[in-house]
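User: I'm writing a tutorial on reading structure tokens. Could you give me a worked example: one chain, its sequence, then its tokens, then a sentence or two explaining what the tokens reveal?
Assistant: Sure. Here is the example chain.
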Amino acid sequence: MEFRLFPLKIRDYCQETGQKAAFAPQALGSNGQPVSAFGGMPLLDKLGFFASAARKFHLRPSIEFVIAIAFLGDALVVLGTLCLGYWIRFYPGLVPLAQKHDIYAAVPKMSASLNHLSLLFMGTIFLLGSFAYLRLYSRDCFMRFFRTAKVIFLGSYFWMVVYLAFSLILESQPSISRLAVVFSFVCVSGAMLLWRSVFYNVVCCETLAANLRQKVLFVGWGKEAEQFAREIRRDRNRPCDIIGYLPPPQSHSTIQPPTGVPLLGEYHQLQALLEQRRADIVILADLNLNMGEITKLSNLCEMEFAQFKVIPSYFQILASGLRLETINGVPVLGVSELPLDIFFNRVFKRTVDIVGAIVGLIISAPLIAIFGALVCRESPGPIFYRQNRLSRSGRAFKMLKIRSMRIGSEPQDHAQPAALGKPLWWVKENDPRVLKIGAFMRKWNIDEIPQFWNVLKGEMSLVGPRPEQPETISIFEHKVPHYHARHTCLPGITGWAQVNGWRGDTSLEERIRHDIWYVENWRLGVDLRIMILTLGDCFLGTQRNAY
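And here are its predicted structure tokens:
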């Protein structure tokens, strides 16, 4: 009976709130039960116990209630696991190595060990503060477990480092046991991940998650809004739902939203919709409005306690570096800082480059000697080949390679016409100019090994967009959108485009798109991932389009 009443309850709720309800023909199975769109599983079974309980008791928790429950649970878990770490450290028999060396001879009695409670409470407060500072209690973290796990690990690691530093620098009473701190770090990380995993699965039940998601209303529509809607539809743990859109005043736009985004009325009805709390966020997607209309829209959202946001359609790329800054009191929006514009990020990446280049040159020296001799045997002449390439900000340098082609294969005049939009001097599959040993080296990336020297000199990096010839750049800089965005960082021996197969005689647009993604999303983890993928391709010979 509950299954048959479920659609009726939805219909009644929609009538109360003024919304329309529509059921797909496949929404009910042959037995009258609601059927999920994913694999035909009954909807109530998929939602599970917590979703059923939420419907039964009409639970609609606010975000503040969820934060309070999460914070209380975190506090209990952190305090309990800190006590567990202390107990493991000081309770005889749990650590065989410690018992063997009789380090428990000086363990205080239980009455004296109560003095450590102050350290445990301080540790709990410090850990919760670290989690809060890293935005563990933001709405996004509740809907995305991997982000939550990252914050938990970083916060726990920071706590461990600070406590270990205090134990070495200061002499507190009672003293801080470094072994207990390490045990507590392991216990806290594991217990918090377990607790937050359970909490995440409860919160992500559709009945509860739907109430936590923010409701988005668009004013106008465009390509950027379409991309936003597409990404939201793909995200199972999306932080918001699109409830519909309104056409902007005096709009002449011919772009219409897809069928899944309903038209909620006319623009003049926006205030009524906001008064009914139908939307939490209003996003302006049509920037053809004059400044007066945009100001009125912003003021209306402020009065009705709705967030006002704008899709910056003027910035098609490098949006991760988009910042609002104040210059002499005047707000200015622009691309101001990318990850590799930060000084410490550049220093850290450069340090990794220097270490990697030295190690690479030492390990690869025998390979350079062996393949250099084989090149000379097949085609007498110089072993190394130096080619003009452009580095960061258009600076020219000589890129070093083991020669893989016959002498004279490089055209003297690069002003040749491009075939199908690509330079004629690009190497193609089964190119007759390539030596036999050169084809082997290109397949296994051996010809690129001398570029460790370019990395050591600071002309290149281990990872980055591949450098291009000035002649190639002169052909494509006016044809390919955002071509020069890839020159905001040092070029690399390998890159995100290369490990995804976009190298050689392939789509330059896709190569640029991957390079821009790398520039916008640089992290040490991304570099390590690219290096591991490159080494895997080199050892397994699985490179795509390597010729």
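What the tokens reveal: Residues 1-51, 97-112 have pLDDT under 50 and may be disordered. The chain has four domains: 2-35, 63-206, 214-313, 343-540.
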